[in-house]
Please model this.
Amino acid sequence: MAEIFVVETRGVGKPDYTREVSSGQVRPGILLKYNQQLVEFVYAAQDLVIPSPFVPWMKGLIPHGGTHTAIANPTVMTDAVAAFGVNALIGMIIYNLTDKSQGIVVSNTANTVTVVALAGGTLNTWTTGDAYVFGAHLIDLSTGIPAPYTILAGYSLSLIEQRLNFNQDVEGWIFVDGLLIARPAGASNGSMIYQGEIAYFSTLLLDPTAAAPHLIDYQIINRGLADMGGGITLTTILEAIGTPPFPTEKDTKCPKCGQINRVGVMVTRVKCSRCGNTYILFVRPYPAMPKGD
Model:
């Protein structure tokens, strides 16, 4: 005769999964906590006939570097042998490798590139013979807004995965509050890289209690000998540390006219309030999706 005994019961009813989400619903191998969400930064450099007005992260090829051939100028780089598409470089970053400075391109001709100002260097000007290269800020997949990305006090951001594939030598840099902190991406000509469960960078390494806001910037640079095509995705986890819930609205940027449009966090198709263009975004995966828009 089998022994009869009492088994202690520790719960009644079905398990409570409100603080968890299936890893298959977000990314394989990634299980988000209730106070976390994914934030993905992307850039796709393609040989486009015209820039896409519908997907903000689809851009033209990133040109290769060269040399400033004119006299000294604080804002205009001239390369007599260049053949840029007119105004095709607007929004890209141009780096003065000799001076260690950089600026955002506001206009360009076939052989000149204009910035409002160079910053971060010694002279912050173009001098004859200065070497230059081009790069770009990565773009928030859910808003279409390029980095820098602001992390509010009470939140942390941790890089957990990177995927990149370019046809030229490429470098990737992470800046925090204007200081170069890490170099997560780097590949030689035509190499494809995938790294999961990486820990190159977390704001918690600099601010363990998330006591202060931080400005995060992700940049990629063409270090090859030809125009660069390909793409990169950086997956990060944004975590709330003793803060109110995540916001229910987000600011998005129209890729056609640049207008900032505020919409609900779950909206994926936005009609621009200025030009009427409809553009596409992704939503950030939440542990529990908010209801409605």
Remarks:
- Confidence is low (pLDDT under 50) at residues 9-26, 288-293.
- The first strand starts at residue 36 and ends at 46.
